[in-house]
């Protein structure tokens, strides 16, 4: 049987593939536009081309894993993602890059969706929260190092080397998964892919007030930070005057916060209730939002004061996220894969809207970004309070 630590590392790496493939090429946006004869907006839309199929396919990764097994779905997804990355490396027009980024998006979400289901297959209660938090610690490293790696690869070898790097990384991850990833869903517990069953299951999950409120809370909380990721080239290079190799000024504090908050959540598992942990996380997110507003309206944009809020906000977000995730998944113990799909679909869909519409609407000033982030946090808190106020019901079977 695979060790706890190795399983955590493997699941974290699989979950990180999606965000890693978003952040790695951000520093190369200007050169990609020049190389492919594309406008900045057209290059920005490679994110939308990735995120929209990512959101749609997350509805299916979990259902497929409920029927076919966790291991098989992840292995096939890695093969297809690697082939799509080859296509991105060889793209000669922005239209080709849109196409292959869409193929990447279709397969990149399998790791995070199926990984969440694997956690609940293997562990219960505080152990599940602890493993989810440990996965999140390592998962947080990917967005922190991705733009740094991408920036140096871009400077040394050009933008195509970034996608070649993704090809090689995917090949290594495929080999590791083939060797060490266990099948955690027994054949007798698998669910059919019958259309009637699936329609009923999706309807039950996506109309559950408890599931929707917890899942939307996660999405809104994350968007309070994610708008800075989607605005990173403008926020860092224009507002803060940083170069393409200095994206660590944003991702360093942000991911340190995610790692710290995830460690705290795991440490508190079994000591205090998930409800208290989540509310403590909101207190820290509120403090981060207050710092952001004060700096944005009281000081000119600059380093390090314009990024301090990301550290504080993300500690709180990472404390709350494992608790809210398990609160939602535990409502549907026999359809964990499908429920994880729906949860990731909601978050990915909202991320797509943020990349296409919200980030361009807000990134013209740091004040607008601060106001937008605070509003998103308020929506997340409202959803969490709604979830905690709902009557407790027996999980669906």
For this entry, give a set of tags.
single chain; 397 residues; mainly alpha; 16 helices; globular
Number of helices: 16
**Element order, helices and strands?**
HHHHHHHHHHHHHHHH
Q: What class do helices, strands and sheet pairing give?
A: mainly alpha
Can you summarize the main beta sheet?
Answer: none
Question: Which stretches of 5+ consecutive residues score pLDDT under 50?
Answer: none
Distance separating the two termini: 28 Å
**What is the 3D form?**
globular
Can you describe what's shown?
This protein is an all-alpha fold. It contains 16 helices and no strands. The two termini are 28 Å apart.
Topology readout:
Blueprint (H helix, E strand, L loop, with lengths): L3 H20 L5 H8 L3 H29 L1 H21 L3 H15 L1 H13 L2 H33 L2 H21 L14 H12 L2 H22 L1 H8 L8 H21 L5 H25 L9 H22 L6 H27 L3 H24 L8
Helix pairs in contact: 1-6, 1-7, 1-8, 2-3, 3-4, 3-5, 3-6, 3-15, 4-5, 4-6, 4-8, 6-15, 7-12, 7-14, 10-14, 10-15, 10-16, 12-14, 13-14, 13-16
In brief, what are we looking at here?
This protein has 397 residues and is mainly alpha-helical.
